[in-house]
Amino acid sequence: RIASQLEGGNDEAVRELTQAAIDEGVAPGTILNEALTSAMDRVGELYETQEYFLPEMMASAQSMQRAMTLLRPLLSEADAKPAATAILGTVKGDLHDIGKNIVGMMLEGAGLTVIDLGPDVAPETFLEAVKKHSPDIVGMSALLSTTQPMMGTTIKVLEEAGVRDQVKVIIGGPPTNSTYAEQIGADGYAPDASQAVKKVRSLLDL
Ligand code: B1M
Fold first, then answer.
1. Is this prediction's pTM over 0.70?
2. What is the per-residue pLDDT across 144-165, written as a single tens digit (0 to 9) for each?
3. Which of 4, 47, 118, 169 is the most buried (most CB within 10 A)?
4. Could you tell me if 115 and 87 are in contact, meaning their C-beta atoms sit under 8 angstroms apart?
């Protein structure tokens, strides 16, 4: 029931059913993996087959986030370790953050811990965050052709600091593509949030 309400993006029902499951003693990790995460996978598939569009996907992702506020405090390390950690940001000079936020929601839906650095993130800020949080993934978004080169600059800064090999870097946003990702030495590109989840899973063997 939680999964089907999540697929429908029914915030209140997802929250109530999640609370009911917690009260009935269902393990938080079971609720996360068997109801919420699997439903978000299904939402990703529906988006890819164009049965769902952005509003539906965002509604489900928001329902997932609300359910996570109930579950997060209960998830002990043994019960459900986060699958991985991702740092996300829109590159320096670029204030567009709607797409990045959706990517963040979908990654959280897939069980990752997401540290969102916001829009207009300088290469040095990405670097500091990598040193501080030791993430598995660094995700960069750019919407402007004028800010897209910042992605390459950011990768160079990570390389120069000797931390590039500790993370996988993925990029996205309309001016980018897989050829560009290769050119700047990123590990992957995703055209949308659902593909971003797939790319992260394949890069990290999740
Ligand atoms: Co601006 N803007 N904007 N804008 N804006 C565009 C991007 C533009 C295409 C409009 C146009 O001219 N037709 C154009 C860019 C042209 C270009 O460079 N090629 C443009 C411009 C020029 C500008 C300004 C320069 C305008 C001006 O001031 N003269 C200015 C720049 C400000 C700055 O950043 N320094 C500007 C400002 C703004 C607003 C602030 C008003 C606002 C942003 C608000 C915000 O984000 N908080 C805005 C908006 C809303 C847009 C449009 C209308 C919509 C962008 C959007 O949110 N799309 C856009 C035109 C358009 O796209 N129709 C436009 C929805 C979003 C869900 O899609 O971001 O593509 P998207 O994200 C997708 C995928 O790309 C992918 O997954 C997401 C979800 O599926 N994805 C990733 C994105 N990041 C990813 C990261 C990944 C993986 C996948 O891995 C890490």
1. yes
2. 999 999 999 999 999 999 999 9
3. 169
4. yes
